Amino acid sequence: MSVLIKGKELSEKIVENIAQEVKNYEKKPGLTVIIVGDNPASRVYVNKKKTTAEKAGFNSAVIELPEDVSQQELETHIDVLNKEDTVDGILVQLPLPKHISTYDILERIKPEKDVDGFHPINVGRLVIGLKPYAVSCTPFGIIKLLEENNIEIEGKHAVVIGRSNIVGKPVASLLLNRNATVTVCHSKTASLRRICMQADILVAAVGIAKFVKADWVKPGAVVIDVGINRTEEGKLVGDVDFEEVSKKAGYITPVPGGVGPMTIAMLLANTLELFKLHNNL
Ligand code: GUN
Question: Which of 1, 99, 140, 182 is found 20 to 30 A from 279 (Cα to Cα)?
Fold first, then answer.
């Protein structure tokens, strides 16, 4: 049985430390989340972001916009928040409706307020190894989990399954910046299993329930499961077949309670950093 990498406990510790730090300041960090439309999963995530931010003593607001909001109207909201002194971090929950250009929206957010680290300036800084204003929350959380569990990254072969802008690409950059040898796989990758079998660190971010099986995993490997999938019975499962892979891996993140809680903790950490930057603290 592998060692469990418990994100829930670490995330609670991080949020608690942030809450303690915030008590020292006269002003409070401000986080505003924009949600468009009625995606039930997005609503759950946004509510959790708001309640956790409030628990940490932040000023937190959610702007709810209808599914048919125009590009221009959404951009106007961002322009207002960009200028608002009490707002340190702006997050536009993804995915956005098809008629909206996501790239234009993400580029509209001031890089210094981009808590998600999705602005091309922040992505670019990450790729060339400069410090971004913020690093994408889930990948940042994955690195924290590895570091907290004293898992060496340098010189290891890290295989990332999934090339999304939210997880796959930024986590690959973070691992590469820490001197891992990184292979990024995706839906068109040939011999996926054979590549995964070579991984010292395997990051699964494909969005397919129980996709990664035990015979894809090298004995003792570190397996990071980013997936959040619901089975027909309503059970939450990851992209990794936990039951069989946990018998073979050295370390594994559970779902739920692994990577998921870290995303929100890192969102708060990013907001706090931006707050300190804006207030010269
Ligand atoms: N949708 C799924 N994950 C994320 C995330 O990390 N940030 C935003 N803004 N939207 C998401």
Answer: 140
**Quick check: CB of 167 below 6 Å from ligand 1?**
no
Assigned domain for 36 exists: yes
In this prediction, residue 123 has a pLDDT band, given cuts at 50, 70 and 90, of: very high
Tell whether 100 and 145 lie within a shared domain.
no
Task: Find where tokens 């971004």 sit.
Answer: 132
198 is catalytic: no
**68 included as an active-site residue:** no
pTM metric for this prediction: 0.97
Residue tagged 């309670």 (tokens): 257
Task: Centre a 10 Å sphere on the Cβ of residue 34 and count the other Cβ atoms it contains.
Answer: 22
Q: How far is the CA of 220 from the centre of ligand 1 (A)?
A: 31
For residue 143, which of 186, 197, 182 has the smallest C-alpha distance? 182
Structural domain span for residue 228: 137-260
Instruction: Identify whether residues 145 and 106 lie together within a single domain.
Output: no
Under the banding of pLDDT at 50, 70 and 90, the label for residue 1 is confident
Q: How far is the CA of 162 from the centre of ligand 1 (A)?
A: 15
User: CB neighbours (10 Å) of residue 76?
Assistant: 12
What CATH number has the domain bearing residue 49? 3.40.50.10860
Query: Which pair of structure tokens corresponds to residue 235?
Result: 């059970």
Q: Please give the average per-residue pLDDT across 63-78, as a whole number.
A: 98
* pLDDT value, residue 272: 98
